[in-house]
Amino acid sequence: MSTLLAFEDALKAIEDSASVRVSNEIIALSNATGRILAKDIVADIFVPPHDNSAMDGYALVAKDWQAGKSFIVSQRIPAGLHPEPLEPGTCARIFTGASIPEGADTVVMQENTQPVNDKIIFNQSPTNRDNIRPKGQDIEAGQTVVKAGQKITPMHIGLLSSLGITEVSVYKQLRVGILTTGDELIPAGQSLEPGQIFNSNGPMLSALVTQAGHRVADCLHAADTPEDTEAALRALMASCDVILSSGGVSVGEEDHVKSVLETLGTVHLWKIAIKPGKPLVHATLKGIPFIGLPGNPSSTLVTYHWFARLLLSVCSGQVADHPQSYLVDAGFSRTKTIQRDEFIRVAIGNDGLAYAHPQQSSGALLAACEGQGYLHIKAQTPIEYGCSYSFYPFYGF
Ligand SMILES: Nc1nc2c(c(=O)[nH]1)N[C@H]1C(S)=C(S)[C@@H](COP(=O)(O)OP(=O)(O)OC[C@H]3O[C@@H](n4cnc5c(N)ncnc54)[C@H](O)[C@@H]3O)O[C@H]1N2
Ligand code: MOO
């Protein structure tokens, strides 16, 4: 057990080893959701470009107000119109989003006014700058609004559109190769013979990689032989920026991934003090980053979420993307401790407590589908009912 690398040390080693593996391209902003920005975006205009009204009402000079005094309406300013300067002693009819006329310093919403003949009386003394959204309230010209390495969200699409931007420089999508290993595996759609199981890690990894915004360049399967494993890895090395595999990384004589990696490249780390997912292997194959995920489906999921996802994000140009956690109280207890950090698949009950799925086997995937996230229990830590532990929701991965 002492030869296992600590969870945080493994995370840091993998993050530190990674660098951007893709070049840039310019694409339409409308197609950029989920892509990684390659260059900082600096605003060249103010948003909003002018002081403008937050209400439908009247613009005036606050200090002109007197109880009962009526004001001539000297102009009408709908949004989109460039107004004349305010005539002294008058008010201007104004609408939400319309530019404040030069000279006016406040807007009174129409509900607080009274029309008298063709004039307007303001019920209360207005306050200077009330209901005025100042020029540059959202963004100032010269401000860096989005930094390189940011994954573009629909909110960024809106923000960049408010600057008039139609194209962005992004990193090309990372081409990810996926290798599954195991003689017992057949693809879904075929009939199972005794001893066989369906390959679930291949489709799951493809879905995880795609969900993260990368491109699955190739998905291969190798039998449990060194020759087949090496041939598949060589094929993926020819067409991919990063390679992930599942299975064949443990110690049995049917596990060939690690020994093949040693002939094709350099193994950096093997075996981490986590449960599930202990025998993860990290290597570089002629400059291509590689992570071998353990084959048990929940081990594949957990190690993808924590390690492969981080590696892929850095290689794709994204700033290292660590999942968010918050503290949640356990709805169960366990006195037995283990010497590995554990990622228990839990559901959050209506009482707000985290409940462990009863089936935590690394071979079982239902717990992840029926749960909402991981409770991270550090090595040698008992679980006490009502005590707080870090909870990582699946949606954060
Ligand atoms: N003597 C020891 N045996 C094992 C150890 C150990 O320390 N000493 N570690 C165990 C742990 S922990 C894990 S995790 C597994 C990891 O093994 P491998 O990565 O070598 O994976 P395989 O042996 O190839 O497969 C494990 C398990 O997962 C199933 N599997 C594999 N690939 C897929 C797939 N694509 N789709 C669905 N299921 C898959 C496979 O059939 C096995 O049941 O090693 C333990 N053993
Ligand atoms: O690491 Mo294994 O995933 O404990 O079964």
From TrEMBL:
GO cellular component, one term: cytosol
Gene Ontology MF annotations: metal ion binding; molybdopterin molybdotransferase activity
Matching InterPro entries: MoaB/Mog-like_dom_sf (IPR036425), MoaB/Mog_dom (IPR001453), MoeA-like (IPR038987), MoeA_C_domain_IV_sf (IPR036688), MoeA_linker/N (IPR005110), MoeA_linker/N_sf (IPR036135)
Entry keywords, A to Z: Magnesium, Metal-binding, Molybdenum, Molybdenum cofactor biosynthesis, Transferase
Gene3D superfamilies: MoaB/Mog-like domain, MoeA, C-terminal, domain IV, Molybdopterin biosynthesis moea protein, domain 2, Molybdopterin biosynthesis moea protein, domain 3
Cofactor(s) this protein cannot do without: Mg(2+)
Highest taxon, organism lineage: Bacteria
Enzyme class: transferase
Family, as annotated: Belongs to the MoeA family.
Role this protein plays: Catalyzes the insertion of molybdate into adenylated molybdopterin with the concomitant release of AMP.
Name of this protein: Molybdopterin molybdenumtransferase
Organism from which the protein derives: Marinomonas ushuaiensis DSM 15871
The organism's taxonomic lineage, starting at the top: Bacteria, Pseudomonadati, Pseudomonadota, Gammaproteobacteria, Oceanospirillales
